[in-house]
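To: structure subgroup
Subject: Chain for Friday's discussion

All,

I'm putting the inputs and outputs inline so they're searchable in the archive.
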Amino acid sequence: MKQKRKYKQTTIKNMKFIDSDSLYNKFIDKNSVLVKIHDTIDFSFVNDLCDEFYSDNEARMMGKKENDVKPSYKSHVGMTKNRFITYTDVTLATVYDGHHAVNTIADLKSRGFTVPMAVGDVHFGDIYLRESMVLDNTQIIAPYRKNQATNSCQTNDTMIEAWAYNHTPEYKDHIRIRTYTEPKQGEMKNMHGMSRAKFRGLQKIRVQNYMSAIVANCKRLATAS
């Protein structure tokens, strides 16, 4: 029988690192013309000239997984029951969904939409969003945030009512509407170019997002008719 090879596990302790300066000095001739040019002229001004072409100061490093962190933006989408997009916007990736929901609902109402209820994921279950929407006659239908489910549901009237509603058959019917949003965002991402930013800067990404939403609505209009 063949013996199994024993591979030594590589760790930070037994790894040897070589700094770039030592490699540079080892392989580059100090009398080279390129070295003399490098030592004579400061080329750092090139970074400033090309900054707008190769960097995006408004993008934020975000990712759902530790190995998937990259410069990102966040797209927000509001839809009707018929799966038509009535609101969309792009923000910095660090903007919390529940906080931006206030802007979403306010924008819809300013354009004449009635919003008796807003269905969202756990990020919409924030106690502050629920309280602010009660004043605007909009019911938030969303699961509970784990860090607020125990204490606030026993002392806050808004959360007590939400807790009671979340245990009714009506809540189960309404929360199913949430399943329409994810496929729509997946369509915009995978079929209409929103998986990758084609431009740099928040305003340009917003234009890209609007165009993607228009295409998605045109397709929905064609299939609905």
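Points worth raising on Friday:
The radius of gyration is 26 Å.
The mean pLDDT is 80.

D.
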